[in-house]
Design goal:
This protein is mainly β. The chain is built from one helix and 18 strands. Strand 8 and strand 9 form a beta hairpin.
């Protein structure tokens, strides 16, 4: 949702706002969004592309009604780009059971706030457990195997977990890679001395894939992915 778009249009848009549909009473959840100051048309004039300097959320009471803001953080560690992935860990302590509205907005380096976007979260509802997928494969010594494929999978952002299990007496390592342009970049690794490996990674939106490398030995493996 957006309020007063013609008045607030010069500020950053808050898009791709994401939160779980349900969360346990008294629990916490991850709120994420993308704040971007690039969604404008310059065909009838020029407007500078400003950087995003802050983002914040409100629960139930929006900013124009006097709501209390809580700061969000830049996923990459600092603000300063025209587009920033932002996130916050939100506590439901003190919230009644039922549906609540979480509002998100961002500010640019000119001090201008953009339109407000929102998402619904139900406290005390049926909590959906993280989705798990099990992959199986075979890898030869000093070779790689990729899951779910060499082209990877799209992910909106959040926690990615991978648990690898291979044959006794072998040494398989587990890596998580992210696609950057046309290049796969390693973002997490588990390189123990056995074939039991685990990765727990806080991911931004993008395309990812798992890489299983047989450092020593060969054989079949099982990789359980939890999103």
């Amino acid at each position: 949702m957006a309020r007063a778009p013609y008045q607030l249009g010069s500020g950053p848009d808050s898009v791709s706002v994401s939160a779980p549909a349900s969360v346990a009473t008294g629990g916490t959840f991850t709120l994420s969004a993308s704040a971007t100051n690039t969604r404008f048309n310059t065909s009838n004039g020029a407007e500078p592309t400003r950087t995003v300097t802050a983002a914040e959320y409100f629960i139930d009471t929006p900013p124009w009604a006097g709501g209390t803001p809580t700061a969000m953080t830049a996923t990459d560690g600092s603000f300063g780009s025209a587009t920033e992935a932002v996130r916050a860990t939100v506590s439901t302590a003190g919230l009644s059971d039922g549906r609540h509205t979480v509002y998100v907005r961002a500010r640019n380096n000119n001090g201008t706030y953009g339109p407000v976007s929102a998402v619904f979260v139900t406290v005390g509802g049926t909590v959906t457990p993280p989705a798990s997928t099990t992959y199986t494969g075979t890898v030869a010594s000093r070779s790689n195997s990729y899951q779910p494929s060499t082209t990877g999978f799209s992910y909106a952002g959040g926690t990615l977990k991978g648990n690898l299990s291979g044959p006794s007496g072998t040494d398989f390592d587990l890596y998580l890679q992210k696609l950057s342009g046309s290049t796969w970049t390693q973002v997490a690794a588990s390189e123990g001395s056995t074939s039991t490996e685990a990765i727990n990674y806080t991911a931004t939106s993008g395309t990812y894939r798992w890489r299983v490398y047989a450092y020593s030995g060969s054989g079949s493996y099982t990789l359980t992915e939890t999103r």
